[in-house]
Structure formats: C-alpha cells, structure tokens
Amino acid sequence: MLDLLNALVEPLQYSFMQRSLIVAILVGVICALVGSYLMVQRLALLGDAISHSVLPGLAIAFLTGTNLFVGAFIAGILSTVAITWIRTRSPIKEDAAMGIVLSSFFALGITLITVIQKNNKIDLNHFLFGNILQVTHQDVRDTAIIAAIVIILVIALYKELLFYTFDPLSAQATGLPVQWLNFGLMVLIALTIVASMKAVGVVLVLSLLITPGATAYLLAPRLHQVMMIGAVLAVIASVSGMYLSYFFNLPSGAAIVLVISSFFLLAMLFSPRHGILTERWRDRRLPPSEAS
Amino acid sequence: MLSLPWFPLTANRASNTHSQRPGERSLIGLPTKSQGHDPMGSERAHDRPQPILRVNNMTVRYRNVLALEQVSFGLDAGKMLGILGANGAGKSTLMKGILGLIPTVSGQVFYDGQPFQQQRHRVAYVPQRSQIDWAYPATVWDVVLMGRIRSAGWLSPISASSRRIAMEALERLGMVDYRDRSIGELSGGQQQRVFLARAMTQQADLFLLDEPFVGVDQKTQTIIFDLLRELTQEGKTILVVHHDLGASLNQFDELLLLNRHLIAQGDRTTVMTPENLHQAYGSFFQLPQAA
After folding, report:
1. What's the DSSP call for residue B139?
2. Scanning A16, A153, B260, B288, which has its CA 20 to 30 A from the CA of B90?
C-alpha cells in the first residue's frame, strides 16, 4: 500500500512532471466542455479540421517570432472561415468543405515546418503528437489563461449555447444573435485545440474533444451533466495516462488517448442507460415475456 | 409535381455563420396600404380594415430556384390561419421568410404596424419536428425553459417566475409527469406538445407553427387544436403550416393556398374550389369528402 503511494508520489518530485500534470488536467477539462458541443452538433469532423489547420499558423508564428498559440489560433479561425465560405458560396456540402480545408491547411503546415526544420531546432513530430513532458512555465501559464477564458465563456453562455445547439432556428427566431453564438463556439473550439497541442498534438486532440463527451453521453441525459462527467473522466484519463507514460516509458499523448478510449469502451458495454451488456443482462432478468 | 431541389438547403441545420446581407431584407419603411395588390387576383373577399400581420411582396430564392414569388397577405388578430400547399410549394419558406430566418429577395413584414424584426419578443415559433435532433442530451424541462432564455437576458439565470410559467405551460399540455424525461424517449405527439409548451412560455401574441400535426397521435392533435382555439379566444394570432386536407380544415378561421405564389386566401369554401386546388396540387388531385 505504501509502495503504491510512493509510486504515485515519486514522479511528482520532478518539476517537469508537475507542469505536465497541470497542463494535462486543464486540457482534459476544457476539451470535455467544448467537445460536448461538437458532439451534440454532430460536428466531430470540424474539430478534426480545425486541429489539423493550426499547423501553418504555428509555422508562420515561429518564423515571425510571434507567440505560437496566437499563430495557431488565427489559423484555426481562418479554417472555419474557409469552410463557411465554401459551404455558402458553392453547392459543396459542409463535410466535403471540411475535408478540403483540413487537408490543404495540413499540407501547407507540413510543407512550411519541413522547410523551417532544415535551419532551426523545431520538430514536426512535437506538433503532430504532442510533447507534454517538455512544457515550460510559460506554456503552463498560457494554458491556464486559455482554460480560464474557455471555462468562463462556457458558463456565461451556457443557456444561450444550449438553445442554439439544440434548435438553431428557434433560437434565431427569438432574436438570439446566432451568427455570433456560432462564431463564439468556433473561438472556443480553436482556443481549446491550441491549448491542447502541447499535450496530445494536433492529430490526437480529436480524441480528447469527442471521447469524454461521448462517454458521458452514454451515462447522463442532460448537457451540463454530460459536460461535467466528461470533464471528470478526461481528468482521470489525463492523469493516469501521464503515470502510464512515466512508468512504462510510453508516448504520453497516446497513453492519455488510450485510457479515455477504454473508458468509452467500458461505458459502451456497461452504461446503465445504453450499455450493450447491461441491456442484455436486464432482458435476461426480466421474466420471459408473459404470454398470457 | 414539383420536386424539391432546394430542400436540403433548408434542412441543413449545421452551423450558419454566413452573415445576412443587410440590403437583402431591409425593413425600412412604413406599413403600406397595399390592399387588393394581389398579383394572382384570387377571390379576395371582404376588405380587412387593419390586419395585425401584414406580408408585402415576399420573394425568396434558393440559389437558382424561386421558392416564393411576390406573396402578399394580411391576417387579423385573434385568427388562426392554415397555410396549405403541395410539397415544395413554399409553406415553410414563407414562415421562415416572415421570421427573418432566411434571406429574402424582396418583401416586408409588419406586425402590429411595426417592422416584424422589432417585434420578435412577441412571436413564438415551433419548427418542424424533423429539423430537431431528438438524440440531443436534454430533458423536457430543459427544452421548455428554452422559451424563457430571451426574457432572462444574457448572463442571468432563469428566474423563479420563469420556472413557474414553464410549469404552467407543461400543465396546460398535460406533460408535467414527463418533466425529467429525455426528449428522445418521448413519442412524436409528446415531443410536439413539449415544443408547444415551450412556445407558450414565451408568452407571445403571434404563434407560427410549422407542420405541428405531422407524426402526432389523435390525442395530441385534439389537445393542440383545443389549445390553439383557447389562444385565439385570448386574442392571439396563429399561423399553421398544415398538410391534411381532411376534416381538420374546419378548425381554421382562414386558409391560405400556396404554390410558390399565393393562389387564394379566405374561408374554406372560397379557398378550396376545384380551380384553386388544381392550381395548387395539379390535375390529379381529388378533393376529399368534406366532413
């Protein structure tokens, strides 16, 4: 017992481990909150599109010496603008528009970073798959600021965003500024993705956005419950993923994603509301249908 | 028969960031007395002195398809209007055009002598059930409270009096026992009653209901018609997009027949003539036996 406790405390004496745990927890919370909106709006692909699209922003920010978070955020927002532009100005549907924008931004990002890599100490892999063990004090501060903004916005706009994401037409009919709410949602998503880059990288961030909310959706019937349960699950997954990565020398982003994915699998099988096995078990316990 | 090339556009409930170009539906101007300005020259009977809702020359185009052409009509306060027409005749488009949910090529809407957009707090809208994702994680109570979000205002929680109003609306529609149920677990009729309860909580004077009787049971249909009747007796004005041409038509004070342009408006006998129905539905249409 004491051994286990020691094992849990041991990594905490390293300050790099403290910093990465803080970032992992913050990222887990905001990804679950914002990702719930993506899930209920069936816009998972949009999360994927924005996360891949931040890459050229990172490269340009690096070249010009701006804050990487700012460059990535601007590129993320630009990608949503491009998607909307294609969707409204051509007969192309939204999912195709996302596919086009995602791949072209991503390709531009890879090209730019590969060119930069030749002369600079910058590693494409860190952006693609995250590098949470090397977060700096400044990264922790930036992540905390973004997390605070996201959490405050989600709480402040909760009832309006609930209405808008559930029934956009009626929300607009009552006079809610739905264009601004939609834009606000895009900003929230882009901010969250930018904050998550260091932790899991742009390729795997989709998992943190969608899976906690989807898991919680199998467990709870109301949006705020989905968000809160999702956040708790994401934090547990982030922390345990970090420990797995520490003790078994695994890539940390991938470890976090594997833990949250196994949570989803468990909920899928055993959820009291929608679990596959729970339903089968329930059917068996019921008396074989009264034929009378 | 009309096909529906534009329908996927209206059904697309995904994000709509596109900003409405202001010039396209400018509402500047005063209510004009454009009585008898009816392009199709239908049997427009008696002069209505002061209709509370006035739609002037509404034209809507979805890309290259003309969905509504120069539709003008008025409706008196306290009346229930049934909007009829074939699939793709522009019934839902007319409703969305009135509400300002879609850009219009031309057309002004006035309510109570004022541009409609300034009167939105007096209007409640019930969209088609098919526009809603019923798997959304919300309970009946969550949905009904949505009707109070605008009156609560930004950054403030929904008040106790709003909750009381929402509770009364649920009672009026016989849905109190379902308060904590997920909306996805309800039957079609129950879902429609929840939406109507939400519209009630808005305490509106004008109700616009898009196909409220599609996929609902007889019990719900009776409950809804009784409620709408009570509302008109309280002086509320109601527009209903309707598809059934049977006995339920007797419930409406007035009918409006649409086939991209307005074919006729008035009571049942003036509107449901063989010529009008032919214009609206084509030659193979047979008038159901009047009840």
Report:
1. B
2. B288
Amino acid A289: pLDDT: 52
**HEC readout, chain A:** CHHHHHHHHHHHHCHHHHHHHHHHHHHHHHHHHHHHHHHHCCCHHHHHHHHHHHHHHHHHHHHHCCCHHHHHHHHHHHHHHHHHHHHHHCCCCHHHHHHHHHHHHHHHHHHHHHHHHCCCCCCHHHHHHCCHHHCCHHHHHHHHHHHHHHHHHHHHCHHHHHHHHHCHHHHHHCCCCHHHHHHHHHHHHHHHHHHHHHHHHHHHHHHHHHHHHHHHHCCCCCHHHHHHHHHHHHHHHHHHHHHHHHHHCCCHHHHHHHHHHHHHHHHHHHCCCCCHHHHHHHHHHCCCCCCC
CB A41 within 8 A of CB B135: no
Pairing between strand B114-115 and B254-259? Answer: unpaired
Structure tokens at A115: 């060119």
Contact between B139 and A43 using a beta-carbon 8 Å cutoff:
no
Q: Which of A93, A174, A229, A273 to mutate to test the interface with B (most CBs of B within 10 A)?
A: A174
Q: Which chain B residues are within 8 Å of A185, Cβ to Cβ?
A: 15
Nearest-angstrom CA–CA distance, B90 and B259: 7
Q: Which residue, among B17, B121, B210, would best test binding to A if mutated, counting the most A CBs under 10 Å from its CB?
A: B17
At B286, the pLDDT band (50, 70, 90 cuts) reads: low
Which fold, B43-281?
Rossmann fold (3.40.50)
E strand or H helix that includes residue B10:
helix B7-11
Distance from CA of B40 to the nearest CA of A (A): 30
User: Distance between CA B253 and CA B264 in Å, rounded?
Assistant: 14
Q: Which residues contact A142 (CB under 8 A, 6 or more apart)?
A: A67, A69, A195
pLDDT tens digits, residue range A89-142?
A: 999 999 999 999 999 999 999 999 999 888 777 788 888 888 898 899 999 999
CATH 2.40.170.20 fits domain A2-281: no
Average pLDDT in chain A = 92
Question: What is the distance between the terminal CA atoms of chain B, rounded to a whole angstrom?
Answer: 27
The ipTM assigned to this model is 0.90
What is the residue extent of each domain of chain A? Answer: 2-281
Within 8 A of A222 by CB-CB distance, chain B residues are 137-139, 142
Taking contacts as CB-CB distances below 8 angstroms, the residues of chain A near B98 are none
Tokens of A209: 């956005």
Q: What is the pLDDT of residue B37?
A: 44
B60 forms bridges with which residues in the sheet? Answer: B68
